[in-house]
Amino acid sequence: MSLRWRLLTATWIAITAALLLAGIVLGGLFRDHVLQQFQGTLTHQLDELTSRLDFDAQGQPVLEGTLLSDPRWQRPYSGLYWQVDEMAANGQGRIGVLRSRSLWDANLQLGADSLPDGAVHVHQGRGPKNAEIVMLERWVRPADAPADRWRIVVAAELQGVDEAVNRFTSVLAVSLAVLLVLLMLAAWAQVAIGLRPLRVLQRCVQDVRSGRTGRLQGEFPTEVQPLVNEFNGVLDRNAEVVARARTHAGNLAHALKTPLSVLDQATAQGAPASGTELARLVQEQLGMARRHVDWHLAQARMAAAQRLPGQRTAVIPVVQGLVRVMQRVHAARALEMSLDATGDSLFFAGEEQDLHEILGNLLDNACKWAHSRVGVRVSFGAEGSRGQIAIEIEDDGPGIGAEHLKSVIARGERLDESTPGTGLGLAIVQDLVGLYGGHLQLRPLQAGGLVAALSLPAAH
């Protein structure tokens, strides 16, 4: 499924096929060229023999071999031969009337043939010592005896041609193999350079996902730039959707919470005795309506902001700010609040407002129930993992029994109705943490109190 290997495989197959075809064609062309040169040389030898052939008074051919230019005619089995045959009209006749000394006691064997005077035929066969040879033949007529026909044959062994072709083929094969390796390396380099913008694009997307940047930034080729522009457009559109959802959520909160608060205050002020039951019922329904509004507004905001790319929030400043706020809100109780933070580069892969919502609810709950102390610890995840942020909020309050740990997170569930609240804080925290792929765990302490352990995704 790799695009790189698809391109390389297709390119390497095409290059290999092209070079194989080129090798076959070039090898064939070279052999044809050598054979043509070889036959041209034999034709020249045949012309020389024809010009030196003479006939005596009895009409018999006479040819002095020592007058020929090539000394191989005189060396036995030298690989270059000539022969003169007397031919009848039917193609039969006396073989080897005259022959070169190089033939020694052998004859050149040609099949029955008949061709016009002066024409040249080319044959391949076997010569002395069963060597492969090429033979050229020509028929001539004496001027004094035009009825007689004589065949002149020259032949040469193909061993030299085969050796030359084999040497050329070997050099050609090595050259094409080296060229194949160089072309494959060039194809690999071309694909690597051509696909490098995709690696850059991948790193840019990773930067957006990890929160280092909110948009794809950098210079890209013309073919990739439209994709970058479209992706940045999607990011901008998502940001607009989130902003619009939050605006609508705020408007709805303002539109609903204010009338609900007015009605709640009106029912609480001096209701007549006969209307006490009605006032209590109205207050209960208003409280339920307020809890539903808070719940659904939180759900709408969380769904709009779910894991948007390019989010990055420094954790320590947010925790420090919330600790200062809680110290002021609960100043009357003189709570001891401590912060233990390790690492100065802790970043949450999410929005600051969501981190405020998560930690604010947990800190507020801890401060409400603590007797004298609330502690916050912030660090990287377990076993040195830099993919998660671990946050623990501990109080020394009465704690929660193991049988109530699950139910306390349920929407609107409250274990103590005497403490102000809607019962939605932990449920909202649980939903927000889940949307970011994190984890929330409540653990009771043996000495009393409760630990809320958070695991949230970290941004680089």
How would you describe the overall organization of this protein?
With 460 residues, this protein is an alpha+beta fold. It folds into four domains: 1-52 and 159-210, no CATH class; 54-157, Beta-Lactamase (2-Layer Sandwich), CATH 3.30.450; 236-309; 311-460, 2-Layer Sandwich (Heat Shock Protein 90). Helices cover 48% and strands 19% of the residues. It has helices spanning 3-52, 159-210, 225-268, 276-304, 315-329, 352-369, 425-435; strands at residues 54-55, 61-62, 80-87, 93-99, 120-126, 132-140, 149-157, 313-314, 336-341, 347-348, 373-380, 388-395, 439-444, 450-459. The strands form three sheets. Strands 8, 9, 10, 11, 12, 13 and 14 form a seven-stranded mixed β-sheet that branches. A hairpin with an 8-residue loop joins strand 6 (132-140) and strand 7. The two termini are 30 Å apart. 20% of the residues are buried. Residues 411-422 have low confidence and may be disordered.
